[in-house]
């Protein structure tokens, strides 16, 4: 049976491709979902993508992932820089975790330079646009082979 990867997205990423294209690009989250599903088929991975604007909901999605999926790719958005709850939830997940940021957070405001999630992530991608999700998926295929 194909291994499943859950791609979790935090607050405001539902607006991807609709606002601030100079920072986040022109692709929508639906485009990301379609591209990753296609790449997943090539890699023999099943891909599910979710987005939530609510911290507790993201925590619950991570809890659900413990039973159902082999790997998590997460762009926690602003919660990256604030959420011990998301870090704690990820610490209960046993498989690989890859953190993705569309923009280069290190070239932005200093409050974006610290990530709680990086304390758990097996790898971090930042500044490669939405292509970062595909690169994370390729790495998942290697880690889960
Ligand atoms: O670069 C990233 O992927 C971020 O995780 C995006 C977050 C930001 O708070 C992080 O520091 C870096 C913001 C997501 C907002 O998404 C939007 C997308 C399109 C239009 C408006 C907001």
From TrEMBL:
Residues annotated for substrate binding in this entry: 75, 81, 88, 102-103, 112
Positions annotated as active site in the UniProt record: 24, 101
Pfam families: DHquinase_II
Gene Ontology molecular functions: 3-dehydroquinate dehydratase activity
Family: Belongs to the type-II 3-dehydroquinase family.
Function: Catalyzes a trans-dehydration via an enolate intermediate.
Protein name listed in UniProt: 3-dehydroquinate dehydratase
Organism annotation: Maritimibacter dapengensis
Phylogenetic classification of the source organism: Bacteria, Pseudomonadati, Pseudomonadota, Alphaproteobacteria, Rhodobacterales
